[in-house]
Amino acid sequence: MDTSHLAEHAGTAGTLFASIFVVATTTMRTMIPLRIFGILANIVLFLTAIPAHNYLVMLVQSVMCFVNSYRLHQMLQLVRDVKKSVNSDLSMDWLKPFMTERNCTAGEMLFYKDEKAEDMLYIVSGKFKLVESGIVFPVGAIVGELGMLSPSKVRTQSLECIEAGLVLSVSYSKVEELYVQNPAFGFYFLRLSSARLFQNLETLQKQLTQLTAASAAVPKPA
C-alpha cells in the first residue's frame, strides 16, 4: 500500500492546523493564551514533520515547545502567587525571577529626590533609608513604587544605603507588562502603593505632632 499520498495529505492537514494556531496567536491580548496556542502549533508542526523525516523542523519545534512550556509555567506560577499575595501580606518573592541584582555599600545613594524614576527595588539584605522622611526599610521591603505613580515619573524621596546589602530591581516597563498580562497584579500593586502612602502619612503625622509638642514646650517671652 502506497502511504506517500497519506503522508502528503497528513502533512498538508497538519500545516493547515498549525497555520490556524499561529494566526490565532496574533489575536491574543494576554500571554497565557498566546503560549498555549504556541505550544499547540509546535506540537502539530512536530507531528507533521515526522512522516517526511524532517529532523530540522522536529528539532526546532521541540526547542520552541520547551521554551513556550517554560514561559507558560512561569506565567501560571505568577498568577497563582499574585492571587496568594493579594490575600496575604504584601510580598514580592513571586516577582524575583523578573528582577536583576544590585549590590550596595553603606553610604551609597541609590537614587535622589526629583530624579527620573525608572524602576522599583526589593530589599534582600542590608538597611536602606528614605532621607527626607527618615523611614528605614527592613529586609523584604519594597521601595520606589511611588515614582511609577507620579505624574512626572520622578522620585518623591531620596534613598540611601545605611548598611551594605543586596537589592533586586524591576523596571516600570516590566511592571506594566506584567499588569497587562495579569490584571490581578494591578490590584496587588494598588494595595502595595496604598500601604506606602499610608505609611508616609503616618510618619508625617508623627513628625507634625513632635513639632507641635516642641513648639508648645518653648517658653514664651515675657
Question: Summarize this, please?
Answer:
The chain is α+β, with helices and mostly antiparallel strands.
Features of this protein?
222 residues, alpha+beta, 2 domains, 4-stranded antiparallel beta sheet, 55% helix, 15% strand, elongated, cNMP-bd_dom, RmlC-like_jellyroll, membrane, cNMP-bd_dom_sf, transmembrane
Write the layout of secondary structure elements.
Blueprint: H1 4-25, H2 31-49, H3 55-86, E1 100-104, E2 109-111, E3 119-123, E4 127-130, E5 136-137, E6 142-143, H4 146-149, E7 159-163, E8 165-171, H5 172-181, H6 184-217
Antiparallel strand pairs: 1-8, 2-7, 3-6, 3-8, 4-5, 4-7
Provide an overview of this structure.
InterPro entries: cNMP-bd_dom (IPR000595), cNMP-bd_dom_sf (IPR018490), RmlC-like_jellyroll (IPR014710). Pfam families: cNMP_binding (PF00027). The chain crosses the membrane at residues 6-25, 32-50. By secondary structure, this protein is of the alpha+beta class. It has two domains: 4-86, no CATH class; 93-202, Jelly Rolls. It is built from six helices and eight strands, in the order αααββββββαββαα. A four-stranded antiparallel sheet has the order 1-8-3-6. Strands 2-7-4-5 form a four-stranded antiparallel sheet, with no helix packed on it. The relative contact order is 0.11.
- Strand segment tally: 8
CATH class of the largest domain: Mainly Beta
Low-confidence runs (pLDDT<50, min 5 residues)? Answer: none
Estimate the helix proportion, in percent.
40-55%
Number of domains: 2
For CATH, the homologous superfamily of the largest domain is named as Jelly Rolls
Total number of helical segments?
Answer: 6
**In sequence order, what are the helices and strands, one letter per element?**
HHHEEEEEEHEEHH
Any idea of the CATH topology of the largest domain? Jelly Rolls
Query: Which value, in Å, is the CA radius of gyration?
Result: 26 Å
Strand order of the largest sheet: 1-8-3-6
**Helix/strand/pairing category:** alpha+beta
Instruction: Give the overall average pLDDT.
Output: 78
Form type = elongated
Distance between the termini: 118 Å
Do you know the CATH architecture of the largest domain?
Sandwich
Residue fraction in strands: 5-15%
The biggest beta sheet reads: 4 strands, antiparallel
